[in-house]
Structures are given as structure tokens and as C-alpha cells.
Amino acid sequence: MRATIRWQGNVCFEAESGSGHRILVDGPPDHGGENRGPRPMETLLLGLGGCASFDVVHILRKSRQDITDCRCEIDAQRAEDEIPAVFTHIRLHFVVTGRNLKQNQVKRAVELSAEKYCSASIMFGRAGVQIEHSYEVVEAA
């Protein structure tokens, strides 16, 4: 896996993934940024949520659950008054929508992602970040 980061001036950078996708990463105005993209630490959370959500959807589809939507809401805390201001606690809450979803299948998908498949979640956990996973099931209209 590869990536390239190119300086765009001030504290803005263009990040390009090995697959050719690009995003801008920028800082807030009070730190010399122009707010043209997410902060670098926010992109870590976006990657974590994307990785875990990919797993949950994949596992549910593989178990023939009629899933119509999956949303992962992330809440993270960072070390206060410390440099580096690392993540100390991250909560991922999955809102899974579908028709006749089995509660135990959704629970198992979230557990498998957290414990076995989500590289990002496992990496954060090994680094000492406390990670919580929760879920709710919503019946599709």
C-alpha cells in the first residue's frame, strides 16, 4: 500500500492513495489553514469507520441478511494538554437498517469486525486506545 502527500501551501496537503484517489487535508484558520479539508487526525477516524463499516456490511451480506443501510457514528477523545494529543478512547456506534435483520447476526458482525477483521480497529487497540463498539438495528420502511 502506498500514498503520496503533496504540500499545497500553508498547512494544506493533497493526499493521494495508491489507487489514485485524492483528498485535501487542511488545518483550521487559527493554525494557518483555510479549512479546505478534514484535519489529519479526522482522516484517521474516517479510515477506521470505513474499515469497520466495510466489514460489518460484508459479513451481514455474506450471512444473507437483507441490509439496506449502515451508518457508523464515531465519537473520539484525545489526550488533553499533551503532545502528542493521541486518541485515548473511540466509540463506534453502528446503525444498521434492513428487513427482518437478526439481532444476533448484527451483533456477531460488529464483534467479528472489532476482534478479527478490522485492521484499523485492531491497530488502534494495540496502541492502547480504548475502543467501544455498539449497534442498533432499524427495520427498513
UniProtKB/TrEMBL annotation:
Pfam families to which the protein is assigned, alphabetical: OsmC
NCBIfam families: PRK10738.1 (NF008009)
Name of the molecule in the record: OsmC family protein
Organism encoding this protein: Isoalcanivorax beigongshangi
